[in-house]
Amino acid sequence: MTENDQGNVPSRQRKRFPGISSRAYEHPADRSALVALRKLSGFDTVFKALSGLLPERSLRLLFLSDSVRVSDAQFSHLNDMLRDACYILDLEKVPPMYVTQDPKPNAMCIGLDEPIIVVTTGLVELLDEEEMRAVVGHEVGHALSGHSVYRTVLLFLTGLALKIAWIPLGNVAIMAIVTALREWFRKSELSADRAGLLVGQDVQASMRGLMKIAGGNHLHEMNVDAFLAQADEYEKAGDLRDSVLKILNVLPRTHPFTTVRAAELRKWSESRDFQRIMDGHYPKRSEDKDTSVTDSFRESAGHYADTVRTSKDPLMKLVGDIAGGAGDLAGDLGGKLRNAFGGGAQGPRKPDAAGADGTPGTAGDGRSGPDTATGDAP
Which candidate in 131, 139, 235, 264 is catalytic? Predict the structure, then answer.
Protein backbone atom coordinates (compact mmCIF):
# COMPACT_ATOMS: atom_id res chain seq x y z
CA MET A 1 0.00 0.00 0.00
CA THR A 2 1.06 3.56 -0.54
CA GLU A 3 0.30 6.67 1.47
CA ASN A 4 -0.86 10.00 0.11
CA ASP A 5 -2.90 12.99 1.23
CA GLN A 6 -6.10 10.97 0.90
CA GLY A 7 -4.92 8.15 3.16
CA ASN A 8 -4.49 4.49 2.29
CA VAL A 9 -5.03 3.50 -1.34
CA PRO A 10 -4.39 0.22 -3.18
CA SER A 11 -0.91 -0.10 -4.72
CA ARG A 12 -2.46 -0.60 -8.18
CA GLN A 13 -5.45 1.54 -8.99
CA ARG A 14 -8.50 -0.60 -8.34
CA LYS A 15 -12.05 0.38 -7.62
CA ARG A 16 -13.18 0.52 -4.01
CA PHE A 17 -16.66 -0.39 -2.75
CA PRO A 18 -17.55 1.72 0.31
CA GLY A 19 -20.18 0.15 2.55
CA ILE A 20 -20.62 -2.87 0.26
CA SER A 21 -22.79 -5.64 1.64
CA SER A 22 -21.61 -9.21 1.26
CA ARG A 23 -24.97 -9.82 -0.41
CA ALA A 24 -23.50 -8.14 -3.50
CA TYR A 25 -21.24 -11.08 -4.29
CA GLU A 26 -22.77 -14.00 -2.42
CA HIS A 27 -24.01 -16.98 -4.39
CA PRO A 28 -27.85 -17.18 -4.13
CA ALA A 29 -27.79 -20.46 -2.16
CA ASP A 30 -25.14 -19.10 0.22
CA ARG A 31 -26.95 -15.79 0.64
CA SER A 32 -30.32 -17.37 1.47
CA ALA A 33 -28.75 -19.51 4.21
CA LEU A 34 -26.90 -16.54 5.71
CA VAL A 35 -29.93 -14.25 5.63
CA ALA A 36 -32.00 -16.93 7.38
CA LEU A 37 -29.36 -17.41 10.09
CA ARG A 38 -29.02 -13.67 10.67
CA LYS A 39 -32.80 -13.33 11.03
CA LEU A 40 -33.20 -16.42 13.23
CA SER A 41 -34.67 -15.37 16.55
CA GLY A 42 -32.46 -16.23 19.50
CA PHE A 43 -29.47 -17.23 17.36
CA ASP A 44 -27.22 -14.61 18.98
CA THR A 45 -28.03 -16.02 22.44
CA VAL A 46 -27.20 -19.57 21.33
CA PHE A 47 -24.05 -18.29 19.64
CA LYS A 48 -22.80 -16.62 22.81
CA ALA A 49 -23.51 -19.76 24.83
CA LEU A 50 -21.59 -21.90 22.37
CA SER A 51 -18.63 -19.54 22.20
CA GLY A 52 -17.40 -20.69 25.58
CA LEU A 53 -17.47 -24.34 24.47
CA LEU A 54 -15.46 -23.92 21.29
CA PRO A 55 -11.64 -24.16 21.27
CA GLU A 56 -11.14 -20.76 19.63
CA ARG A 57 -8.71 -19.47 22.26
CA SER A 58 -6.69 -22.64 21.85
CA LEU A 59 -6.55 -22.14 18.07
CA ARG A 60 -5.39 -18.55 18.46
CA LEU A 61 -2.63 -19.61 20.84
CA LEU A 62 -1.66 -22.43 18.51
CA PHE A 63 -1.16 -20.16 15.51
CA LEU A 64 0.53 -17.51 17.64
CA SER A 65 3.02 -20.05 18.96
CA ASP A 66 3.68 -22.17 15.88
CA SER A 67 3.11 -19.98 12.81
CA VAL A 68 4.36 -16.63 11.51
CA ARG A 69 2.05 -13.66 12.02
CA VAL A 70 1.89 -11.37 8.99
CA SER A 71 2.87 -7.75 9.72
CA ASP A 72 5.02 -4.92 8.42
CA ALA A 73 8.02 -6.85 9.78
CA GLN A 74 7.05 -10.34 8.57
CA PHE A 75 5.67 -11.22 5.12
CA SER A 76 5.14 -7.51 4.54
CA HIS A 77 3.92 -8.06 0.96
CA LEU A 78 1.10 -10.24 2.30
CA ASN A 79 0.33 -7.60 4.90
CA ASP A 80 -0.01 -5.00 2.13
CA MET A 81 -2.36 -7.29 0.22
CA LEU A 82 -4.46 -7.90 3.33
CA ARG A 83 -4.82 -4.20 4.06
CA ASP A 84 -5.62 -3.54 0.39
CA ALA A 85 -8.35 -6.18 0.40
CA CYS A 86 -9.92 -4.79 3.57
CA TYR A 87 -9.73 -1.28 2.11
CA ILE A 88 -11.40 -2.28 -1.17
CA LEU A 89 -14.22 -4.24 0.53
CA ASP A 90 -14.45 -1.62 3.29
CA LEU A 91 -13.81 -4.08 6.13
CA GLU A 92 -12.97 -1.73 8.99
CA LYS A 93 -11.03 -4.14 11.21
CA VAL A 94 -8.15 -5.96 9.53
CA PRO A 95 -8.17 -9.60 10.72
CA PRO A 96 -4.94 -11.24 11.93
CA MET A 97 -3.21 -13.33 9.29
CA TYR A 98 -0.74 -16.20 9.77
CA VAL A 99 1.53 -18.20 7.50
CA THR A 100 1.86 -21.81 8.59
CA GLN A 101 4.32 -24.43 7.37
CA ASP A 102 2.48 -26.87 5.13
CA PRO A 103 3.49 -27.89 1.60
CA LYS A 104 -0.16 -28.32 0.57
CA PRO A 105 -1.57 -25.09 -0.93
CA ASN A 106 -4.43 -24.00 1.30
CA ALA A 107 -6.02 -21.01 3.03
CA MET A 108 -8.82 -20.64 5.54
CA CYS A 109 -10.76 -18.11 7.57
CA ILE A 110 -11.83 -19.32 11.01
CA GLY A 111 -12.90 -17.90 14.36
CA LEU A 112 -15.95 -16.70 16.25
CA ASP A 113 -15.24 -13.46 18.08
CA GLU A 114 -12.77 -12.31 15.43
CA PRO A 115 -11.88 -14.05 12.15
CA ILE A 116 -8.33 -15.33 11.63
CA ILE A 117 -6.89 -15.86 8.16
CA VAL A 118 -4.35 -18.65 7.73
CA VAL A 119 -2.37 -19.40 4.54
CA THR A 120 0.10 -22.22 4.03
CA THR A 121 3.66 -21.91 2.79
CA GLY A 122 2.70 -24.15 -0.13
CA LEU A 123 0.21 -21.53 -1.31
CA VAL A 124 2.58 -18.58 -0.77
CA GLU A 125 5.29 -20.30 -2.81
CA LEU A 126 2.88 -21.36 -5.56
CA LEU A 127 1.18 -18.08 -6.48
CA ASP A 128 2.45 -14.80 -7.90
CA GLU A 129 1.43 -11.42 -6.48
CA GLU A 130 -1.80 -10.91 -8.42
CA GLU A 131 -2.89 -14.52 -7.92
CA MET A 132 -2.19 -14.27 -4.21
CA ARG A 133 -4.10 -10.99 -4.04
CA ALA A 134 -7.22 -12.80 -5.28
CA VAL A 135 -6.76 -15.49 -2.60
CA VAL A 136 -6.40 -12.89 0.16
CA GLY A 137 -9.54 -11.18 -1.18
CA HIS A 138 -11.25 -14.57 -1.12
CA GLU A 139 -10.51 -14.97 2.60
CA VAL A 140 -11.50 -11.37 3.40
CA GLY A 141 -14.76 -12.11 1.59
CA HIS A 142 -15.31 -15.03 3.98
CA ALA A 143 -14.72 -12.66 6.90
CA LEU A 144 -17.10 -10.00 5.54
CA SER A 145 -19.85 -12.58 4.92
CA GLY A 146 -19.46 -13.99 8.42
CA HIS A 147 -18.67 -17.44 7.05
CA SER A 148 -16.05 -18.02 9.72
CA VAL A 149 -18.64 -17.51 12.45
CA TYR A 150 -21.39 -19.68 11.01
CA ARG A 151 -19.01 -22.35 9.79
CA THR A 152 -17.44 -22.71 13.23
CA VAL A 153 -20.80 -22.91 15.01
CA LEU A 154 -22.37 -25.28 12.51
CA LEU A 155 -19.32 -27.55 12.44
CA PHE A 156 -19.45 -27.71 16.22
CA LEU A 157 -23.14 -28.61 16.16
CA THR A 158 -22.48 -31.25 13.50
CA GLY A 159 -19.65 -32.74 15.54
CA LEU A 160 -21.86 -32.79 18.62
CA ALA A 161 -24.66 -34.48 16.70
CA LEU A 162 -22.31 -37.16 15.40
CA LYS A 163 -21.71 -38.27 18.98
CA ILE A 164 -25.36 -39.25 19.30
CA ALA A 165 -25.52 -41.02 15.93
CA TRP A 166 -26.07 -44.33 17.80
CA ILE A 167 -29.71 -43.35 18.28
CA PRO A 168 -31.94 -45.38 15.90
CA LEU A 169 -32.12 -43.62 12.53
CA GLY A 170 -29.89 -40.95 14.01
CA ASN A 171 -27.11 -41.60 11.51
CA VAL A 172 -29.47 -41.07 8.57
CA ALA A 173 -30.61 -37.74 9.98
CA ILE A 174 -27.04 -36.66 10.74
CA MET A 175 -25.83 -37.52 7.24
CA ALA A 176 -28.65 -35.41 5.82
CA ILE A 177 -27.46 -32.46 7.93
CA VAL A 178 -23.82 -33.00 6.96
CA THR A 179 -24.70 -33.27 3.28
CA ALA A 180 -26.72 -30.05 3.39
CA LEU A 181 -23.94 -28.32 5.33
CA ARG A 182 -21.31 -29.32 2.78
CA GLU A 183 -23.52 -28.09 -0.05
CA TRP A 184 -23.66 -24.69 1.66
CA PHE A 185 -19.88 -24.78 2.18
CA ARG A 186 -19.36 -25.34 -1.52
CA LYS A 187 -21.60 -22.42 -2.41
CA SER A 188 -19.85 -20.19 0.15
CA GLU A 189 -16.58 -20.93 -1.66
CA LEU A 190 -18.10 -19.66 -4.90
CA SER A 191 -19.12 -16.50 -3.03
CA ALA A 192 -15.59 -16.00 -1.73
CA ASP A 193 -14.14 -16.53 -5.23
CA ARG A 194 -16.29 -13.60 -6.35
CA ALA A 195 -15.02 -11.48 -3.47
CA GLY A 196 -11.47 -12.35 -4.54
CA LEU A 197 -12.24 -11.08 -8.04
CA LEU A 198 -13.68 -7.83 -6.65
CA VAL A 199 -10.44 -7.32 -4.71
CA GLY A 200 -7.97 -8.36 -7.42
CA GLN A 201 -10.05 -7.07 -10.35
CA ASP A 202 -8.05 -9.33 -12.66
CA VAL A 203 -10.04 -12.34 -13.87
CA GLN A 204 -6.99 -13.84 -15.57
CA ALA A 205 -5.07 -13.84 -12.29
CA SER A 206 -8.00 -15.57 -10.58
CA MET A 207 -8.07 -18.18 -13.35
CA ARG A 208 -4.32 -18.74 -13.10
CA GLY A 209 -4.52 -19.20 -9.36
CA LEU A 210 -7.19 -21.87 -9.67
CA MET A 211 -5.21 -23.62 -12.40
CA LYS A 212 -2.11 -23.68 -10.22
CA ILE A 213 -4.06 -25.12 -7.30
CA ALA A 214 -5.19 -27.89 -9.65
CA GLY A 215 -1.96 -28.50 -11.59
CA GLY A 216 0.95 -26.90 -9.75
CA ASN A 217 3.39 -24.21 -10.78
CA HIS A 218 3.64 -25.11 -14.47
CA LEU A 219 1.89 -22.23 -16.19
CA HIS A 220 3.93 -22.71 -19.35
CA GLU A 221 2.27 -26.12 -19.65
CA MET A 222 -1.30 -24.91 -19.00
CA ASN A 223 -3.91 -22.84 -20.81
CA VAL A 224 -6.92 -21.04 -19.30
CA ASP A 225 -9.25 -21.78 -22.24
CA ALA A 226 -8.33 -25.46 -22.21
CA PHE A 227 -8.81 -25.55 -18.43
CA LEU A 228 -12.30 -24.07 -18.77
CA ALA A 229 -13.05 -26.55 -21.56
CA GLN A 230 -12.42 -29.29 -19.00
CA ALA A 231 -15.24 -27.89 -16.86
CA ASP A 232 -17.60 -27.94 -19.82
CA GLU A 233 -16.59 -31.50 -20.70
CA TYR A 234 -17.01 -32.55 -17.06
CA GLU A 235 -20.54 -31.16 -16.94
CA LYS A 236 -21.90 -32.72 -20.13
CA ALA A 237 -19.76 -35.86 -20.53
CA GLY A 238 -20.97 -39.41 -19.99
CA ASP A 239 -24.37 -40.89 -19.27
CA LEU A 240 -26.59 -41.20 -16.20
CA ARG A 241 -24.06 -43.48 -14.51
CA ASP A 242 -21.43 -40.74 -14.77
CA SER A 243 -23.90 -38.20 -13.34
CA VAL A 244 -24.39 -40.38 -10.27
CA LEU A 245 -20.63 -40.85 -9.90
CA LYS A 246 -20.12 -37.07 -10.07
CA ILE A 247 -22.61 -36.61 -7.23
CA LEU A 248 -20.89 -39.27 -5.14
CA ASN A 249 -17.47 -37.68 -5.82
CA VAL A 250 -18.54 -34.21 -4.70
CA LEU A 251 -20.62 -35.17 -1.61
CA PRO A 252 -17.66 -35.54 0.81
CA ARG A 253 -16.01 -32.29 -0.36
CA THR A 254 -16.31 -28.85 1.24
CA HIS A 255 -14.99 -27.15 -1.93
CA PRO A 256 -16.30 -27.42 -5.49
CA PHE A 257 -13.95 -28.98 -8.04
CA THR A 258 -11.38 -26.50 -9.29
CA THR A 259 -12.45 -26.46 -12.94
CA VAL A 260 -16.05 -25.90 -11.83
CA ARG A 261 -14.96 -22.96 -9.66
CA ALA A 262 -13.10 -21.44 -12.60
CA ALA A 263 -16.09 -21.81 -14.91
CA GLU A 264 -18.48 -20.34 -12.31
CA LEU A 265 -16.18 -17.37 -11.70
CA ARG A 266 -15.72 -16.69 -15.41
CA LYS A 267 -19.50 -16.80 -15.90
CA TRP A 268 -20.06 -14.34 -13.03
CA SER A 269 -17.30 -12.01 -14.29
CA GLU A 270 -19.21 -11.70 -17.58
CA SER A 271 -22.58 -11.13 -15.90
CA ARG A 272 -24.55 -7.91 -15.52
CA ASP A 273 -24.43 -8.32 -11.73
CA PHE A 274 -20.65 -8.05 -11.73
CA GLN A 275 -20.66 -5.07 -14.07
CA ARG A 276 -23.19 -3.25 -11.88
CA ILE A 277 -20.94 -3.70 -8.85
CA MET A 278 -17.94 -2.39 -10.81
CA ASP A 279 -20.06 0.61 -11.84
CA GLY A 280 -20.76 1.35 -8.17
CA HIS A 281 -24.31 -0.04 -7.96
CA TYR A 282 -24.51 -2.63 -5.19
CA PRO A 283 -26.45 -3.38 -1.97
CA LYS A 284 -25.11 -1.62 1.12
CA ARG A 285 -24.40 -3.05 4.54
CA SER A 286 -26.74 -0.48 6.07
CA GLU A 287 -29.64 -2.17 4.25
CA ASP A 288 -28.89 -5.72 5.48
CA LYS A 289 -31.39 -5.52 8.34
CA ASP A 290 -34.21 -5.00 5.85
CA THR A 291 -33.35 -8.05 3.76
CA SER A 292 -36.26 -10.45 3.19
CA VAL A 293 -35.67 -14.12 3.99
CA THR A 294 -38.47 -15.07 1.61
CA ASP A 295 -36.93 -13.12 -1.27
CA SER A 296 -33.53 -14.68 -0.59
CA PHE A 297 -34.95 -18.21 -0.65
CA ARG A 298 -36.88 -17.36 -3.80
CA GLU A 299 -33.62 -16.30 -5.47
CA SER A 300 -31.95 -19.49 -4.32
CA ALA A 301 -34.80 -21.65 -5.64
CA GLY A 302 -34.72 -19.75 -8.90
CA HIS A 303 -31.00 -20.36 -9.22
CA TYR A 304 -31.36 -24.11 -8.76
CA ALA A 305 -34.29 -24.21 -11.21
CA ASP A 306 -32.22 -22.32 -13.76
CA THR A 307 -29.29 -24.68 -13.16
CA VAL A 308 -31.48 -27.68 -13.93
CA ARG A 309 -32.94 -25.98 -16.99
CA THR A 310 -29.59 -24.98 -18.54
CA SER A 311 -27.38 -27.84 -17.34
CA LYS A 312 -25.71 -30.11 -19.88
CA ASP A 313 -25.37 -32.91 -17.33
CA PRO A 314 -27.35 -36.01 -18.44
CA LEU A 315 -29.10 -36.41 -15.07
CA MET A 316 -30.00 -32.73 -14.83
CA LYS A 317 -31.34 -32.80 -18.40
CA LEU A 318 -33.46 -35.81 -17.48
CA VAL A 319 -34.81 -33.99 -14.41
CA GLY A 320 -35.58 -30.97 -16.57
CA ASP A 321 -37.32 -33.11 -19.19
CA ILE A 322 -39.40 -34.86 -16.53
CA ALA A 323 -40.38 -31.52 -14.99
CA GLY A 324 -41.22 -30.13 -18.42
CA GLY A 325 -43.20 -33.26 -19.27
CA ALA A 326 -45.17 -32.95 -16.05
CA GLY A 327 -45.92 -29.33 -16.91
CA ASP A 328 -47.08 -30.31 -20.41
CA LEU A 329 -49.21 -33.11 -18.96
CA ALA A 330 -50.83 -30.71 -16.51
CA GLY A 331 -51.47 -28.26 -19.34
CA ASP A 332 -53.04 -30.95 -21.54
CA LEU A 333 -55.20 -32.18 -18.67
CA GLY A 334 -56.33 -28.64 -17.90
CA GLY A 335 -57.21 -28.08 -21.55
CA LYS A 336 -59.26 -31.28 -21.72
CA LEU A 337 -61.14 -30.36 -18.57
CA ARG A 338 -61.96 -26.91 -19.93
CA ASN A 339 -63.16 -28.44 -23.19
CA ALA A 340 -65.24 -31.00 -21.30
CA PHE A 341 -67.04 -28.26 -19.39
CA GLY A 342 -67.39 -26.01 -22.41
CA GLY A 343 -64.91 -23.37 -21.22
CA GLY A 344 -67.67 -21.74 -19.18
CA ALA A 345 -65.36 -20.95 -16.28
CA GLN A 346 -63.74 -18.16 -18.23
CA GLY A 347 -66.96 -16.48 -19.24
CA PRO A 348 -67.79 -15.20 -22.73
CA ARG A 349 -64.89 -14.05 -24.83
CA LYS A 350 -64.77 -10.39 -25.80
CA PRO A 351 -63.92 -9.47 -29.36
CA ASP A 352 -60.27 -8.71 -30.08
CA ALA A 353 -59.28 -5.11 -30.60
CA ALA A 354 -58.01 -4.58 -34.13
CA GLY A 355 -54.77 -2.78 -34.78
CA ALA A 356 -54.27 0.08 -37.16
CA ASP A 357 -53.25 -2.33 -39.92
CA GLY A 358 -56.30 -4.52 -39.37
CA THR A 359 -54.47 -7.28 -37.51
CA PRO A 360 -56.18 -8.68 -34.42
CA GLY A 361 -54.90 -7.38 -31.09
CA THR A 362 -54.99 -8.86 -27.57
CA ALA A 363 -56.63 -6.14 -25.50
CA GLY A 364 -60.06 -7.76 -25.40
CA ASP A 365 -59.39 -11.22 -23.97
CA GLY A 366 -56.47 -10.45 -21.66
CA ARG A 367 -54.34 -13.15 -23.23
CA SER A 368 -50.67 -12.60 -23.96
CA GLY A 369 -48.51 -13.89 -26.74
CA PRO A 370 -45.83 -16.56 -26.40
CA ASP A 371 -43.04 -14.15 -25.46
CA THR A 372 -45.06 -12.55 -22.69
CA ALA A 373 -46.23 -15.90 -21.38
CA THR A 374 -42.73 -17.27 -20.93
CA GLY A 375 -41.14 -14.03 -19.78
CA ASP A 376 -38.29 -14.54 -22.25
CA ALA A 377 -36.89 -11.77 -24.36
CA PRO A 378 -37.47 -12.22 -28.09
Answer: 139
